[in-house]
Every structure is written in structure tokens, then in C-alpha cells.
Design brief:
With 230 residues, this protein is of the alpha/beta class. It has one domain: P-loop containing nucleotide triphosphate hydrolases (Rossmann fold, 3-Layer(aba) Sandwich). The protein is built from 9 helices and 8 strands. A hairpin with a 2-residue loop joins strand 4 and strand 5. 40% of the residues are buried. Bound molecules: 2'-deoxycytidine-5'-monophosphate. The site of 2'-deoxycytidine-5'-monophosphate has 15 residues, from helix 2, helix 4 and helix 8. 2'-deoxycytidine-5'-monophosphate binds next to helix 2, helix 4 and helix 8.
Length: 230
């Protein structure tokens, strides 16, 4: 431990990582760090510049021109800034999800973002979610959770989120995107999505949000010996 607690939550898209990590972080007074948002910001930059997102040389050439900053607003929400512009909403568009998955397969992009993520964990008690937090970014995290659910259950949840945000979506398309990202995120050579050997596996296919949250809180208390605040 570096003076702060780190909890790593990894798993495929739509398993509920971000909503669960956010609510557990609030309960224990930890900082929630959504690392997917950082990859999404790079994906958005590549999309806007029209570079081939699988071309490592082209994307690498773009990186020095990017100023990527994370900040937390008054509501405690993580906001992403790309060269000074708040892109927090735009990075959530479905086409940017695919761009994020594409650029995240590039070793140069992963190396570029590594220190930014580790710095957050050095400076705060964090619950950090992503794909390689327990395996690569924070291998010494006090607790590692691998959160998963069936692709269909994840697509249904993603649909609800998109509809709630007023974004039009088609179930088959959402499911196809999830499968595309599962395949790509799990089979890439650098930092593929896989459970860390010492992670706790949590499958939320059959349990709702409240039950998943209660389960995670129990695991956090048992493993870290911390109590909920307030
Ligand atoms: O968690 P998310 O769906 O917002 O992440 C967007 C993409 O970024 C996802 O397809 C995989 C990639 N990603 C990654 O490779 N490593 C992380 N730590 C977080 C996200």
C-alpha cells in the first residue's frame, strides 16, 4: 500500500462497473476513476482528426498534440477535457465507444495513459474501473474485482442508459457493438481484458443493481476493513 487504498474493478463493457464503482466510492469516501473515459477522449481526438484508429504510427503522432485533463465537478462527477474543451458528453456517443476500443488496442496509447492513472492512485483512495487495472495499472491494489454479466444482459442495460440520456439506440446494434468490443478488448496483445489471478469474480447477470452494490460493499468492508461514511 502506498498510503492510500486502491480498489481495481475490471470487466467487459456494460457489466455495471461504472455505476457500481461510482456508488461504492461515494459510500466509502473514495475517489471514483473511470479510466474508460480517458481512452474515449483519445478515441474522440482520433475520430475528429480523421486518423486511422488502428494505425499505431498515425495515432502516436497525434498524442503529443493532445492535452487530456480529468476534473471533478461540484456534483463529484468526473469530467474529461480535450485541449481545454469539456468533452464529457461527446465521448459517450456509441461511435466513440468503438473508436475508444480501437485506440485502446495500441500499446503506444496504453503506455501514454499509464502514468496518469497511477498518479491518481498515489494521491487518493481510489476505486478505479477499466480493463487492465488489476493486471497492469495497479497490480498491488488491495482489492481486485472482475465484474461480468452475459452480453445480452449488458446490452439491455446499455439500451436503458442510452434511452435515459435521450440517445436513440437499436438493441441489435448495441449487442453487436458490445460483442465487437468484448472480442477486441479480450484478444488484443497488450493488456487484454482478463481477470487478475487474485481478483474476486462477480457475475451480475442474475442480480440487480441493489444486490450487486450490497455484494460489492460487503467485499470491500471484509477485504479492506473500512466502513461506510455518513
Ligand atoms: O469502460 P468503457 O466502455 O468506457 O471503455 C471504453 C473502451 O476503452 C473499451 O472498449 C476498452 C478501453 N479501455 C481499456 O482498454 N482499458 C481501460 N482501462 C479502460 C477502457
Amino acid at each position: 500500500m502506498n498510503g492510500h487504498f486502491s480498489i481495481a474493478i475490471d470487466g467487459p463493457s456494460g457489466a455495471g462497473k461504472s455505476s457500481l464503482a461510482r456508488s461504492c466510492a461515494a459510500k466509502f469516501g473514495f475517489l471514483y476513476v473511470d479510466t474508460g473515459a480517458i481512452y474515449r477522449t483519445v478515441g474522440l481526438a482520433a475520430f475528429r482528426r480523421g486518423v486511422d484508429r488502428r494505425d499505431e504510427a498515425a495515432v502516436s503522432a497525434l498524442l503529443p498534440e493532445l492535452d487530456i485533463q480529468m476534473a471533478y465537478n461540484a456534483q463529484g462527477e468526473q469530467c474529461m477535457f480535450l485541449n481545454g474543451e469539456d468533452v464529457s458528453k461527446e465521448i459517450r456517443l456509441p461511435e466513440i465507444s468503438i473508436c475508444a476500443s480501437d485506440v485502446s488496442a495500441l500499446p503506444a496509447v496504453r503506455a501514454y495513459l499509464l502514468e496518469m492513472q497511477r498518479k491518481m492512485a498515489r494521491e487518493h483512495n481510489v476505486i478505479m474501473d477499466g480493463r487492465d487495472i488489476g493486471t497492469v495499472v495497479l497490480p498491488d491494489a488491495e482489492l481486485k474485482i472482475f465484474l461480468t454479466a452475459s452480453a445480452e444482459a449488458r446490452a439491455e442495460r446499455r439500451m436503458k442508459e442510452l434511452v435515459a440520456k435521450g440517445v436513440e439506440a437499436d438493441f441489435e446494434e448495441v449487442l453487436r457493438d458490445i460483442r465487437y468490443r468484448d472480442e477486441q478488448d479480450s484478444n488484443r496483445e497488450t493488456a487484454p481484458l482478463k481477470p487478475a489471478e487474485d481478483s474476486v469474480l462477480v457475475d451480475t447477470t442474475e442480480i440487480d443493481f441493489a444486490a450487486s452494490e450490497a455484494l460489492l460493499c460487503r467485499i470491500i468492508k471484509e477485504k479492506l476493513g473500512v466502513e461506510e461514511i455518513g
